[in-house]
Amino acid sequence: MDSASPIHIFWFRRDLRIADNVGLSEALKDGLPVLPIFIFDTDILSRLEDPYDRRVDFIHQAVAALKASFQKSGSSLKVFHGNPLAIFKDLIAEYRVEKVYWNRDYEPDALKRDQEIISLLENDQIKWKSFKDQVIFEGNEVLKSNGHPYTVYTPYAKRWRMKLDQEGLDFHQAKLENLLTFEDERYISLEELGFQKTDMEYSEPIIDLEQIQQYDKLRDYPAQDGSTKIGIHLRFGTISIRECVKVALENNATWLSELIWREFFMQILYHFPRVVHESFKREYDQISWRNNPAEFALWCAGETGYPLVDAGMRELNSTGFMHNRVRMLVASFLTKHLLIDWRWGEAYFASKLNDYELASNNGNWQWAAGCGCDAAPYFRIFNPSIQQQKFDKQAEYIHKWLDEKAYTTVSPMVEHGFARERAIATYKKGLTAAK
């Protein structure tokens, strides 16, 4: 097809799939041939310090799978590496673009980027259309009766469930015959992006129904294979949230609650973007954190002397994953036992987690530190030894990640009772000063 003929563009972002992709399906039924594109955004990639990044490898493989799927339909996926604004300027110059489609993102940097693209398109009198795809309900769709956002999970979840209906779970079919045909190009390599091959092996997401049905019974025990590992697929959109919610509705209410927590934190970030850098409860920014770099390094390395904490950190460092129950413990330990600013831990998780998502990572760290919108009270301080007795009594998880020497000879870096009293006193002092 010649470049003088009008086309539509669909821009893949956090929705790396064809099945049940709202924006893609809408673009493909809107008349004109659709050019699908993906941009390896240098503004994002340049902030990643370690070239061995499993998330970039995951995206690279998922985009390759998308490209191969489109090739089977006689088209392809046009892949770019650079600044999105500059790339769209080039696309507008090369093609007669009538309309650009994408699915919405809600993180502050993404909103800023999208507004720049919108301004460019409107300046060139090019239409654009965005869609809700990565959530069931967007930030303004689940509000209190007075129009204000919810800041407590339980009433938010109740309202969320009341609003849910079948219309919101419809499957969106893509008509691939309406794709633009064009000469395919060589796919950019990981090395050209500035990254290395990792041990990440991408495969199409599969929801294990038996595992979902047992989720509420097994999810707190790290030695059990009770985690769905769907988080990374939701993060990059290789699975539809609608598919997940339908499965949860039919199989496990606890898993549904976890999916609602994800949307709760997303709407908190949307309505209160300051939480990226500030405590939701501002008075908690008056706490005098100890912020000892040597102690932080021991926590990062999994050398605190508390086996369950250390096993969790070593699992994270080795695999990019950590069991959710253990995530809560290690976060509590850092912020309460060591009195290290939750932002330090949040940033470390952001650099390591395969399923890192700003809203959930921020929300859960603030929950653990007691400063979030729906937080554990500051005086709730996990006892690592009791957590081990309750959730890894036979030390199966611990032995998987710690050798016998690390398990038996490393002394705790701080005694629990002392750390607990110190944390409570420090929090009280900071909150009193904030009044």
TrEMBL record:
Sample GO molecular function, one term: deoxyribodipyrimidine photo-lyase activity
Cofactor(s) required, per the database record: FAD; (6R)-5,10-methylene-5,6,7,8-tetrahydrofolate
- Its Enzyme Commission number(s) read 4.1.99.3
Q: Which Gene3D superfamilies does this entry report, sorted A to Z?
A: 1.25.40.80, DNA Cyclobutane Dipyrimidine Photolyase, subunit A, domain 3, HUPs
Signal peptide residues on this chain, from the entry's feature table: none
Sorted alphabetically, the keyword list is: Chromophore, FAD, Flavoprotein, Lyase
The residue ranges of the Photolyase/cryptochrome alpha/beta domain are: 6-136
Q: Which family does it belong to?
A: Belongs to the DNA photolyase family.
Protein name, as recorded: Deoxyribodipyrimidine photo-lyase
